[in-house]
Amino acid sequence: MRLVAAALLVAMAALFIAARAIGPVHPAVGFVRAFAEAAMVGGLADWFAVTALFRHPLGLPIPHTAIVPRNKDRIGEALAAFLRDNFLVPRVVARRMQTLDVAGAAGRWLAQPAEADSRLRMGTARLFADLLDSLDQERLGGMVKGAIGSRLQAMRAAPLLGQALAAAIARDRHVPVMNSLLRWAGRALSSNEHVIRAMVHERAGSLLRWTGLDETVANRLIDGLDQLLWDMVEDPGHPLRMRVEQGLADLAHDMQHDPEMQARVEAWKLEVIGNPAMQRWLDGLWESARGSLLRLTRDPAAIHNGRLGEALQQLGQTLQSDARLKATLNRLARRATVGTAANYGDSIVRLVSETIRSWDARTITLRLENAVGRDLQFIRINGTIVGGLVGLVLHTLDVLL
Length: 401
Hints:
Helix content is 86%, strand content 0%. By secondary structure, it is mostly helical. Helix 8 (137-154) packs across helix 16 and helix 11 (193-203) packs across helix 13 (213-234).
């Protein structure tokens, strides 16, 4: 476009020279000469105006030229103020966010991963993986472990365990556990008969050992214990079993309502959390979670496979169909965006102005000129044509008057 504008100006100059050389051989030559002369003036004037915006015309330090380089800092501040006053105003952001369905878009992306933008998915995955790799893993692991430990310490374990135990008893979910424990006790008794026989033999008197009655007592004791355990497994209404179930119910009640029991459970909980084995388990838990996250981020397609993929797709469908959940998430996104604009709007504006201020004059000149370059050259073309038409009108009026 710069070449077109320059060629048009050169053409007008050539036309003017030709018309002047021909002379007054015909009245029409005067109109051509007037058009070409005025077109040259208009084209040169607009070339000067356009050039003066970005640089000194012909390199001459003419006052009020090279406007953009000389005022780049003021332009940056004006642009930043324009952004702050017209875009980063909380009410403007809130009004714009009213029309955006963030939850619906997220739901469609999750429900139809095959149709999602793979570049966005791959880029997000790489960014997350690089972020995990770049962080101080020892420090981050300590933070995660500390957060989990703090959460466990703040949690009141006794009422929670009591409610879980009471719910299990109410639905007879404790019965299989109790039967398994009783059968385990029976197997333990069978495999440790020699221990019981040795205990009876040591505690029996010399007379019982001499007569061999200690062996009889041991056999009766083992048979009685084995029969007791078997009866408790087979008979849900066995008195001893009912006593055990009542003890479990009392324990569930005490953990929910007895301050002394709750304090005892809390002491046990703190002792477990402070145990070195528990700390090692938390370390391993973080490393395992980090490894899983890295594997998923390095293979984004795997996220949408298996049970995790099914869960994500179901979540996406729910986000699209559940109007109440969608409204809640959209409201959360709107509040977060408005809060960001309110809290960090000045920082964003300052970033814009400081970035423009850091550019050198040539950089900002080239960027602005490239952004509006075609229109600026059209100004030169239009100035050439309009100038010629004005000259033609003036010459016509001179001839007629």
